[in-house]
Amino acid sequence: MSLKRRDRTTAIGVGALPSARRRSALLATDLQDLSFLRRAAPALIAMGIVSLADFLSGQDRYLAPLMVVVPSVASLTLKPVELLWVCLLGFFALLGLSNYDQVVDLNDGRFLYGAMVSYVALTVLGAGVAELRMRRAAAFAAVASVAEAAQRALLRQPPPTVGPLRLAVRYVSAADAGRIGGDLYSVLDTPYGVRVLVGDVRGKGLGAVQTAAVVLGAFREAAYDEDKLPNVAGRIEASVQRHVPDGEFTTALFAGFDRPGQVELMHLGHVPPIKVGRDGTVEVLESPEPWVPLGLGKLAAGEPGVMRVPFGVDDVLVLCTDGVIEARHHRTGEFYPLAERVGPLVRDASRSLAELESAVGRIYADLLLHTGGELGDDALLLLLSRTDPDRD
């Protein structure tokens, strides 16, 4: 199966949204990324069905007036000029069927006259509907593109190397009406080592982006000021309580790299990370003391627990959001088994930045194969490995 046409996701980078991406959003919204023949197919099929039905019913049945469905169907997928050309073909088909049925001999041709007037009127109306449809699609694409550009600016994609870490990111926005979601990440080199945040805001749209802005803004300040990850989480929790509506929450995973050969992890209701060894061995790093998501801290007493696990130069840490592990198989509906598939896909990826980039690309391609080429939710993949001075 070819994935080129069905994959409508796009990797999130930095800066303003390119004009090509805005045009792509418009084309996909109004089906203009399909060829003319594919967009004209419904109207042409309707034309063929009416013609065949009239021919098979014989000359004693006059079904040609049913051709008026052609302008209505064409207005759903075609541009106004394209609609006029297709409807002109339908008009000639109407005349041909009328001649076949010898309508001019029935009631002085009044049936033919009424059918022609109705067809022309609906063609003009259909062209107007097509124009209105395209304008509304352009407005929707513009709003969606601006929102996506805001999300790009908010994320501030980090460089491929931050402190002693290499990283490779694949952040894709799903092809649905929401277009943007609340997946977020940040990688910062602080006085307390490199600190990483991966999170997922509940919901979609601009509200989710606003919540993500609060979380990321608080993290970018607290990560430099606080010496412990629970204190960083506490600062973010306080900011969320002040600026985010009650009931909204953000699952989060914090990672700290303050000591060589180790990683410090703190789970706040998020997808657990996966550690992959150089030989492809997989270890899911479940927390023995998981904590509530950001925004729900007032429901729990105490502070989040922190776990330390070994993390050497031969290891790769795979972080993701639930858009990855909850992606469903295009036939069976099963969730994507990341822990089962990630080992061979990431094996040996710790050797270089190029290998790490290739690995995240392989996971993403495998994810698309699983879903059949489309993602129903935003998805984030973040791969981390340590630099090795002897190897680099």
UniProtKB/TrEMBL annotation:
GO molecular function: protein serine/threonine phosphatase activity
UniProt keyword terms in alphabetical order: Hydrolase, Membrane, Transmembrane, Transmembrane helix
Domain PPM-type phosphatase: 165-386
Pfam families, alphabetized: SpoIIE
Transmembrane segment boundaries: 36-56, 83-100, 112-130
Domain of life where this protein originates: Bacteria
Enzyme Commission number(s): 3.1.3.16
Protein name: PP2C family protein-serine/threonine phosphatase
Organism: Kitasatospora cinereorecta
